[in-house]
Amino acid sequence: MVFCLSLISEDVVRVAFVAGLYGKSNLDGLMIDQVVDLKEDLLQEEAKTMFGTDESKAEAAKKLPESIYPRIFKILTHCLKQNGAGYLVGNELSLGDLAIYEATQMCFQNNPKFLDDYKDLLTIRSKVESHPGLKEYLQKRKVTPI
């Protein structure tokens, strides 16, 4: 399963490059790759709440808000602040910002108030949701557990 996710992740990066969402420099691309990989790591943790024994799912669900989300969201916030322009890289939306949006989606769906301590992440969510090319899609997108 990890191998398949790796292939998907690489394909997303290729599409983002062609679509102009991969930053302007190699350093931008590296930062985006790190955030995409971090999002994939978080997805692995969130998936544990859906698959396995009832006991393991309950333990995974308990770990998310206690340790996983705070650790990941702190890293994402640091990355955003490092750029200082309100986006992960540069001064416009990139694949990295979309990855941050998706990395916060399950938490936001289940407990939106949890993100109140992560204002920079809420700001990115707002920018993604108001982007003309994404706004309509996100409004019509089917809500899924993960």
UniProtKB/TrEMBL annotation:
<dbReference type="InterPro" id="IPR004046">
    <property type="entry name" value="GST_C"/>
</dbReference>
<protein>
    <submittedName>
        <fullName>Glutathione S-transferase</fullName>
    </submittedName>
</protein>
<dbReference type="Pfam" id="PF14497">
    <property type="entry name" value="GST_C_3"/>
</dbReference>
<dbReference type="InterPro" id="IPR036282">
    <property type="entry name" value="Glutathione-S-Trfase_C_sf"/>
</dbReference>
<dbReference type="InterPro" id="IPR010987">
    <property type="entry name" value="Glutathione-S-Trfase_C-like"/>
</dbReference>
<feature type="domain" description="GST C-terminal">
    <location>
        <begin position="25"/>
        <end position="146"/>
    </location>
</feature>
<dbReference type="GO" id="GO:0006749">
    <property type="term" value="P:glutathione metabolic process"/>
</dbReference>
<dbReference type="InterPro" id="IPR050213">
    <property type="entry name" value="GST_superfamily"/>
</dbReference>
<dbReference type="GO" id="GO:0004364">
    <property type="term" value="F:glutathione transferase activity"/>
</dbReference>
